[in-house]
């Protein structure tokens, strides 16, 4: 099994402590434009997440934490006229800021977990500078650890899939974007695909467009092409047809997660559930890849997960880039598909029942169901 694998240079988050700086890649403009936007306060961080300029469960948790850190670093830099007069006012400010950041998106648990970790640190400390230092250190730790966690997920996942498959090279299917852009680097489900590729065991990665937001067609395509990983774009409606053709040698459907309940039910990008159903029908393993920070032991099943509903125009319009033939300038354009007056339902996520999931791969290892049961015991695994 490989371990030292090159990391993609695609970075959704660029952070330095000195000078204090947080820049977030605007993923709405990808793949056509690479523009980093500066985040220097809580409101700017909130808007980056809300507007999905940064997205993907691990990435939004990390950006929320780094937003808190950068905001405090910048506010605290004026030593002659400190903004926080006493620890109580600082704590109140941190509490309000973290609660606000948590309202940016409802489904991915990483955002809530990151905020809760920062609040626990704050509650325990009494010295103003110590509170700020510990918050900054913890947010930096999240950024650093996520990359190694993803490499571990990649290697555990590749090993698990290959154990069942003697073929020299295998094909896989993935959904949404779970790569460097959705994390601090390397990726979760896409991390497994990277690991398979680096081990020279990947024949092809098929990836869906992922309507309506097209994270697959825009972002996964961008990453796979960037890293020269053999891959093919398909529409969401083509997966069953693909799995039915044995010549493609598809051995696994691999997806990420926004929240995994303690029984293993998994919320992920809308369309994931139907992939799990078709994988089961075609007797192909269905793998969920996620850091343990995506597991929510506070909820028993997927029924308790709040599913984000997004604006109608994400469904009624497609957004693309057109080139102005006079000056070559690239301009973002929205084109409407259905007639005015159409009714729209736009849930951003769905829940795949644990029953349909073969294994959950985390940075700590592979979790499978106990023989004869339809549920995972994530309590036991994580304790
Ligand atoms: C490693 S990312 C895992 C999930 O967050 C991903 O599959 C997903 O559903 C992203 O949704 P998004 O709406 O783009 O934030």
Automatic annotation (TrEMBL):
Q: In which pathway does it act?
A: Amino-acid biosynthesis; L-methionine biosynthesis via salvage pathway; L-methionine from S-methyl-5-thio-alpha-D-ribose 1-phosphate: step 1/6
User: Which residues are responsible for catalysis?
Assistant: 258
Name the chemical reaction catalysed here: 5-(methylsulfanyl)-alpha-D-ribose 1-phosphate = 5-(methylsulfanyl)-D-ribulose 1-phosphate
Q: Name one GO cellular component term.
A: cytoplasm
Q: What is its EC number?
A: 5.3.1.23
Q: Name one GO biological process term.
A: L-methionine salvage from methylthioadenosine
Arranged from A to Z, the UniProt key words for this protein are:
Amino-acid biosynthesis, Cytoplasm, Isomerase, Methionine biosynthesis, Nucleus
Where is the protein localized?
Cytoplasm; Nucleus
Enumerate the Pfam families for this protein.
IF-2B (PF01008)
Question: Where is the site described as Transition state stabilizer found in this chain?
Answer: 176
The record's listing under InterPro entries reads: IF-2B-related (IPR000649), IF-M1Pi (IPR005251), IF_2B-like_C (IPR042529), Initiation_fac_2B_a/b/d (IPR011559), M1Pi_N (IPR027363), NagB/RpiA_transferase-like (IPR037171)
Provide the family line: Belongs to the eIF-2B alpha/beta/delta subunits family. MtnA subfamily.
Protein name according to UniProt: Methylthioribose-1-phosphate isomerase
């Amino acid at each position: 099994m490989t371990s030292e694998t090159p990391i993609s240079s695609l970075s959704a988050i660029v952070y330095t402590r000195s000078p204090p700086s947080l820049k977030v890649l605007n993923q709405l403009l990808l793949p056509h434009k690479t523009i980093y936007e500066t985040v220097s306060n809580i409101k700017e961080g909130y808007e980056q997440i809300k507007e999905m300029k940064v997205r993907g469960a691990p990435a939004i948790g990390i950006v929320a934490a780094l937003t808190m850190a950068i905001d405090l670093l910048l506010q605290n830099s004026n030593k002659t006229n400190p903004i926080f007069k006493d620890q109580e006012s600082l704590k109140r400010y941190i509490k309000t800021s973290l609660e606000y950041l948590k309202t940016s998106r409802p489904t991915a648990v990483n955002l809530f977990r990151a905020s809760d970790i920062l609040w626990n640190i704050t509650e325990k400390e009494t010295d103003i500078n110590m509170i700020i230092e510990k918050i900054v250190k913890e947010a930096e730790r999240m950024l650093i650890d996520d990359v190694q966690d993803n490499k571990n997920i990649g290697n555990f996942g590749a090993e698990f899939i290959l154990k069942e498959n003697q073929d020299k090279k295998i094909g896989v299917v993935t959904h949404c974007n779970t790569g460097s852009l959705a994390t601090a680097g390397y990726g979760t489900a896409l991390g497994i695909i990277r690991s398979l590729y680096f081990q020279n065991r990947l024949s092809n990665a098929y990836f869906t467009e992922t309507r309506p937001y097209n994270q697959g067609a825009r972002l996964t395509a961008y990453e796979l092409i960037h890293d020269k990983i053999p891959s093919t774009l398909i529409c969401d409606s083509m997966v069953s047809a693909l799995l039915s053709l044995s010549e493609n040698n598809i051995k696994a459907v691999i997806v990420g997660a926004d929240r995994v309940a303690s029984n293993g039910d998994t919320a992920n990008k809308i369309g994931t559930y139907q992939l799990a159903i078709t994988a089961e029908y075609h007797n192909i393993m269905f793998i969920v890849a996620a850091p343990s920070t995506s597991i929510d032991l506070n909820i028993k099943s997927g029924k308790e997960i709040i599913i984000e509903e997004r604006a109608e125009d994400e469904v009624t319009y497609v957004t693309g880039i057109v080139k102005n033939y006079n000056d070559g300038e690239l301009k973002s354009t929205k084109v409407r598909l259905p007639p005015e007056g159409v009714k729209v339902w736009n849930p951003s996520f769905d829940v795949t029942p644990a029953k349909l999931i073969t294994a959950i791969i985390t940075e700590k290892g592979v979790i499978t169901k106990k023989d004869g049961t339809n549920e995972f015991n994530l309590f036991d695994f994580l304790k």
